[in-house]
């Protein structure tokens, strides 16, 4: 799949659909200060478990597809969540002052983490705004340089109980939401929230790789034992044939 901006090759990601058609805010505190509420259309659910099938989808099989647009660091296409890394999703509206203030903070945190974690991290910003020309102008004005999408169809916001903006959520490769931040956290807070999830992902990936290597090793050992046994049996047969031949000659 083609590379997009600074976020590397397209990966598996669930769709972040319209901010205007969203679910309810997760967390015991309800709507936190700094986030602008939007009417929800779903009933409250658990804070970390997505609605629908409980696998990050809205009841359909597979991940949700996000439609991305052509802009700095992004290109027209699709993006899926969950994927083979950690996804940081920012829900915003161009007219929102806190959203504008959040952009450089997210940019600073993302750029620093990208140096260490590369394609293990994907950042995407989502809005209900559909005027692509105005959206691209806003994006460049606020130094966006990662995936940019608009929300339609199945909703990541609905799946992960997001309401209002700005909201930042962190989703792992299994579709589990680990953080739900509202308002305008600074770059330091964003980094400290995201980095532990990247470390945990790498640990899980390393464990999976070790398990696969162990399985391959066991399979190779079994094949070697089988080959040795076959060789021994063949030698015994050849030895028996030689003895029979000798007896016949005598």
From TrEMBL:
Domain Thioredoxin, chain residue ranges per copy: 43-199
Pfam families, sorted: Thioredoxin_8
Composition bias type Acidic residues, residue spans: 208-224
Domain of life: Archaea
Disordered, as annotated region: 41-65, 199-250
Protein name: Alkyl hydroperoxide reductase/ thiol specific antioxidant/ Mal allergen
Homology family: Belongs to the glutaredoxin family.
Classification via InterPro entries: Thioredoxin-like_fold, Thioredoxin-like_sf, Thioredoxin_domain, Thioredoxin_ResA/DsbE_sf
Protein source organism: Natrialba taiwanensis DSM 12281
Keyword Cytoplasm: no
Keyword Transport among record annotations: yes
